[in-house]
Design a protein that fits this description.
By secondary structure, this protein is mainly alpha-helical. The protein has three helices and no strands.
Length: 98
C-alpha cells in the first residue's frame, strides 16, 4: 500500500489558494493569538513573546496545511467565490457601449 503524503493542488486555482490561505490564516491567527496571550500571561509568563509568536505562527501554518485534507468543503467554497469574483470583473470590463 503506497501512502500519498503530498497535497494535490491541481484541484484548486491559484487565486483560490491565495485567497483561502489568507482568509484561513487570519481567522486561525486571531484565535491562536488570543489563546497565546492567555497562555503566556497565566501559564508561561517567563517565556519571551517572540517564542510564543513563533509557536502560534507554526500552529497556524500546520492547521492551514491540515485543512486541505480535513476541510475540502472550505477549499471548494473558496474556489467558487474566486471564480465568481473574477468573472464579475472580467465581464464588466468587456462590455462596450454603442
Amino acid at each position: 500500500m503506497k501512502h500519498k503524503y503530498t497535497i494535490d493542488y491541481t484541484d484548486y486555482t491559484w487565486k483560490g489558494l491565495i485567497f483561502g490561505t489568507v482568509l484561513l490564516g487570519c481567522c486561525i491567527g486571531i484565535v491562536l493569538s488570543a489563546l497565546a496571550i492567555i497562555i503566556k500571561h497565566f501559564l508561561f509568563f517567563q517565556w519571551n513573546q517572540d517564542i510564543v509568536s513563533v509557536i502560534g505562527g507554526g500552529l497556524t501554518g500546520v492547521l492551514i496545511v491540515l485543512s486541505f485534507k480535513i476541510a475540502k468543503w472550505y477549499w471548494n467554497w473558496v474556489n467558487r467565490v474566486m471564480v465568481k469574483f473574477f468573472d464579475f470583473f472580467s465581464s464588466n470590463g468587456s462590455k462596450q457601449e454603442g
